[in-house]
Amino acid sequence: MSFFKLGVDGVQEVLTLALMVVFFFVVIYSDIALTYKIGIGALVFAVIFITGLASQALKQQKEQDKRAKK
Q: In which domain, by residue range, is 66 found?
């Protein structure tokens, strides 16, 4: 069962979830400036977004290769 509809496999999904949990702990329990927290949040969002995008591109490439072989 998938928690997200990112199109990633199980290992990538677990790593993404772990990244989100670590981010929440950093934002809530750290004593750093708000601008750094926003920067960390933007970085985490970018990593999660790029992971999903790369996974979708890889799946599309595999499907295209399968069609080309037929």
A: 31-70
The token pair that represents 32 in the structure block: 């750093």
13-34 as b/e: b if 16+ CB within 10 A: beebeeeeeebeeebeeeeeee
CA dist., res. 3 & res. 11, Å (int): 13
**Sequential pLDDT tens for the chain (70 residues):** 455 555 567 777 888 888 888 888 888 888 889 898 889 889 988 988 888 888 888 888 889 888 888 7
Which segments of 1-70 does DSSP mark as H helices, in order? 10-29, 34-69
Compute and round to an integer the Cα radius of gyration of the chain. 16
- Quick check: is 53 in a domain? yes
Domain count, the chain: 1
Name the nearest CA neighbour of 47 among 5, 18, 10: 18
